[in-house]
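Hey, I'm writing a tutorial for new members on how sequence and structure tokens pair up, and I'd like a real worked example in the thread rather than a made-up one. If someone can provide the structure for the chain below, I'll link this post from the tutorial.
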Amino acid sequence: EGGVAPGVDPYADEYEEDELADLNFTTYLSDGSQVPLVPNGAASPVELEEWRTYVEAVAACRLRESAPLLRALRNGLAAVLPVEIFPVFTAEELEKLMCGVREVDVELLKSCTEYEEVEESEPHIGYFWSVVEEMRPEERTQLLKFVWARSRMPNSAKDFPMNFKLHGPPTGSQDDPDSWLPHAQTCFFSLSLPKYTSKETLRSKLLFAINNSPNMDADVRLHSAEGWAE
């Protein structure tokens, strides 16, 4: 009672012949290009009884559209970590292995810092670390881009390819340090700080520098999955 007879499409009555008059077995992809869903699809009109076949073909085609992109993504991930061991990790663990730590860990950065021509105990160095600790997460990311051209840090100290270097004041800045900006060398992961006379001056100059300097992008680099098989 109230059921549908076997073999009868319960939705067929919702469509009229003229609604399907302009439809053929083709569809449009995201780039606007038209592709056939069956051989010679442009010359194959969609009949009323074929509407379900047409909808299913469109859905399958659009789902397959991203397959080349997903294969490229998989190949890229495989360059960092063998895909065979993906199931060993959670999604969060894989993200850290592939991309590094999302937020800049100040204590980790401190532990991987060398001081050249400057003492860690000097006032302006203390100002620097105090300002970094007070930065918002996005500002710390900008700082990392400024000094290293990367947006994420490695997972641990042993994963750093080089230490962060804090250098002495730039040449010529000694007479009027508060008028100078910090100087970074991304290739060497280093920062040269003038001997600013106050923490607020250092904050102002550092934030100006990290927010107004063009940066290279070293996040895009070659990785190697060698060694994981051992």
